[in-house]
Design a protein that fits this description.
four-stranded antiparallel β-sheet, alpha+beta, 2 domains, 9 helices, globular
């Protein structure tokens, strides 16, 4: 945490304070991510209080979910960096599919990797994927490739029963996870969603 917080300023007071540009520090997303990843109960409570003071109410249980996924995200990113370094040291040249994807497979987070590959093979050119803010994950494109994509109400209802909210817009597919799921469970959800997506005319294969 910043030096003046370490020197004894209470977290809630620090969140309410201003930075050098005059912006309220508590709105800094990187700081919120650090608090969530650390998981300190008192700091999480102060972050909840700051949010409530600024019009956002989050339950203690939901805050725990946010913290869980931020810790998981950071672990996934550490593992991804190690896997990517190993891959580049062993086989630096990209495969034909990786060239089309414009990334190494190891750069794609494991829980979403197969769904991303399948979507690209169906003709959707994705730009990014994986953990987003708090309890959300995304697969997104740089243009409106999902503009004709619709999921059946039955799938949306079934996922919601399992604590998963699915949303789609022209450029992204987003899931919000209301329960603590492991990577294998998240991967299964992404693959379940992906199987409903029909192929476009163009594909990588």
């Amino acid at each position: 945490m910043p030096e003046r917080f370490e020197n004894g300023v209470k977290m809630i007071d620090y969140l309410r304070s201003k930075d050098a540009q005059g912006d309220t520090i508590g709105f800094n997303e990187d700081l919120a991510s650090k608090i969530l990843a650390k998981g300190d109960a008192a700091e999480l409570a102060d972050l909840r209080l700051f949010w409530r003071e600024n019009g956002r109410t989050v339950s203690e249980e939901r805050m725990g979910v946010f913290s869980y996924y931020e810790k998981l995200r950071q672990q996934v990113h550490r593992d991804r960096q190690a896997a990517l370094a190993k891959r580049k040291a062993e086989i630096a040249e990209k495969t034909e599919e990786e060239q089309a994807l414009d990334c190494y497979l190891e750069e794609i987070e494991p829980q979403v990797r197969q769904a991303v590959l399948n979507l690209n093979r169906k003709g959707f050119k994705t730009q990014g994927s994986g953990f987003a803010s708090e309890n959300t994950q995304k697969i997104y494109c740089k243009d409106d490739q999902f503009n004709k994509l619709n999921f059946p109400d039955g799938l949306l209802a079934e996922l919601k029963k399992r604590g998963v909210v699915l949303k789609v817009d022209p450029r992204s597919i987003t899931i919000s996870l209301d329960r603590k799921l492991n990577l294998a469970e998240i991967e299964a959800i992404w693959l379940e969603i992906e199987k409903w997506v029909k192929s476009k005319d163009k594909s990588l294969t």
